[in-house]
Amino acid sequence: MIIMKKSLLFLLVWCMSLLTLNATDQTFNRTYTVGKTYTIDPAKDLGLAHSNDRNYISRQNGGTGHTSELYYVSDVSAFSIEPVFAGRVREQAWDHDYYTFQVTALKTGFYTFHQEISHYLTPYSTIYNITYNITVVDVTSISMASSMNMFVGEEKSLTPIISHVNAETTLIWNSSNPSVATVSSDGLITGINSGTTTITCTAHNGVSAQCEVTVNPVQVSGITLNESEAEMVVGEKLSLTATIAPDNATDKSVTWSSTNEAVAVVSESGQVTAVGSGTCQIKATANDGSELTASCLVTVEKNNKLAVTDMTQCNGGRGVLNVLLSDEETILGFQFDLKLPEGVTVPTNENGNLMASLTGNAVNTHSISSSMVSEGLYRFVITSQTGRAISNDNGDGMTITIDVADDVAVGVYEITIKDIEMTVKKSGGVYEDVHPRDNTALLTITDAVIGDVTGDTRITVTDVITLISYIQEEAPARFIQKAADVNGDGKITITDAVQMIDIILGKR
After folding, report:
1. Concatenated DSSP letters for 60-72?
2. Is there a cis peptide before residue 347, judged by omega within 30 degrees of 0?
3. Are 119 and 19 in contact (CB under 8 A)?
4. From the centroid of its chain, how far is CA 209?
5. Tens digits of residue pLDDT in 131-161
6. Can you state the angle between helices 494-505 and 461-471, rounded to 10 degrees?
7. Confidence band (pLDDT; 50, 70, 90) for 2?
8. Is 329's pLDDT higher than 70?
9. Residue 318: CB atoms within 10 Å
10. Helix (H, G, I), strand (E, B) or coil at 463
11. CA–CA separation, 394 vs 400, rounded Å?
12. What pairing do the DSSP bridges indicate for beta strands 109-121 and 271-274?
């Protein structure tokens, strides 16, 4: 019996030796930062599982043999350690609990932790002796650029250097004057307005560094005006605008000025008013201190010009174009070229002269010479026969007869008076030639109205008389043939006159 017990005991020991492997030593080196909390998870570090009754931590001991403890060999005040229950596996009648540990470093130094773990994985068991070598460091200083210059709208980054180099920290960035420059959570600085601000970078333990940032304005590099030269007459206005480069210039405002306010003045917004004849420069000067300028050469003449008025005429009709004189000086004579659109002509009278007439007192004091320069271009020269001047106060001016061809399309066309020259008498008997600017009017072409043979947009007794005159071959001055065929039979007869009277009486 004694021999049998000894045999059974030997067999039991031999079997246990098969299920238990030799103890294994494991060492892990870590670097922690003061004030930061870390997790020590022995099973995870070893790559072990703690999941079921076939795979679990069967024993976990610290310095005093308790499962929920870590053992470290020196200076217990260097860490705050909190055990965290991480799992339980029930194996037969035993509960196997497993813990991880929340470790907060409290001061710098070198420390050693120990943990012993028995791991059971069917059908074997392994004992691990774990050593953690912990080096605790701290942020002792932060260094970065002490000053920085940048422009409004520009972005620059600060890169701080942290000592100890292995210390972990979360940096907090702050700008003392966000209206000058802002700073992001990763140290990106954006210039907002010119001025200075202090950018502070602070570690989790209060260690900080500062950078004085000066934000400079983006100066103007160029100014462009919408006009570089302008011709004006007295009393005329012109709006100038200044385009500033670059687009992100801090101060895009300009100051407007005139080099000769007797010629032209300019408002704060760039509106130019012509005051007197002559030339001057209108300048726009940057207000940001760059002293950059741009200018427009303005030439001003007295208001001695001819103006052609807008008119409406039907196609196939004849009308009168008014050319008005607006003078502020003593004008003895003038000449100009009249440019008409295609299909519009100046007819000639029975003497072969272009049909143009003076008005007002000029009828008695001046004469007209005219010619066709080229297709659609006519020249008129008005000269004084008595040495007297032309005056708009007396209604002086002129009219020009124009014919519109039947096939001119309905629409709006331009009539231009160009190459104007005037002879002006100055004080002391001095004569001066002036050249006013071209003047443009609009000619609106409409369709002819049946019955309106005179083309005045109305059907009246005048149209009846004009139609009868045409039938009698008296060649009326204004007659629209396609408007005269009232009954539409392709002929112009007395029947058309009768039906025209019916239109006037409202009978049709």
Report:
1. EE-TTS-TT--EE
2. no
3. no
4. 39
5. 999 999 999 999 999 999 999 989 999 999 9
6. 180
7. very low
8. no
9. 19
10. helix
11. 19
12. unpaired
φ/ψ (deg, to 5) at 154: -80, 155
Residue 453, CA atoms < 13 Å, CB-side half-sphere = 26
Q: Are strands 141-143 and 161-163 parallel, antiparallel or unpaired?
A: antiparallel
Beta partners for 11? none
Which residues lie below 8 Å from residue 3, measured CB to CB, with a gap of 6+?
none
Please report how many Cα atoms fall inside a 13 Å half-sphere around the Cα of residue 270, on the Cβ side.
17
d(CA 278, CA 262) in angstroms, rounded, equals 8
What region, left, alpha or beta, does residue 343 occupy, with left being phi > 0 and alpha being psi -120 to 50 degrees?
Answer: left
CA–CA dist 339, 335 (Å, integer): 13
The answer to whether the beta carbons of residues 321 and 311 sit under 8 Å apart is yes
Contact in structure between 454 and 462 (CB atoms under 8 Å): yes
Q: How far apart are CA 279 and CA 261, in angstroms?
A: 10
pLDDT in tens, 6-40: 444 433 433 444 344 456 899 999 999 999 999 99
Of 401, 406, 442, the closest CA to residue 315 belongs to: 406
Contact of 279 with 259, CB cutoff 8 Å: no
What backbone torsions phi and psi does residue 243 show, to the nearest 5 degrees?
-100, 125
| CB-neighbour burial class of residue 192 (10 A; exposed 0-12, middle 13-18, buried 19+) | middle
Separation between Cα atoms, residue 473 and residue 231, nearest integer Å: 51
- Euclidean distance between CA atoms 222 and 242, whole angstroms: 10
For tokens 């005429």, the residue is 313
- Rama region for 187: left / alpha / beta (φ>0; ψ in -120 to 50; rest): left
Structure tokens belonging to residue 408? 């001119």
pTM for the full predicted model = 0.50
> Which residues on neighbouring strands pair with residue 37, listed in sequence order?
104
Burial class (CB in 10 A: 0-12, 13-18, 19+), 29: exposed
> In angstroms, rounded to a whole number, what is the distance separating the alpha carbons of residues 304 and 289?
42
Structure token pair of residue 391 = 């005056």
Counting residues of the chain whose pLDDT is more than 70, the rounded percentage is 92
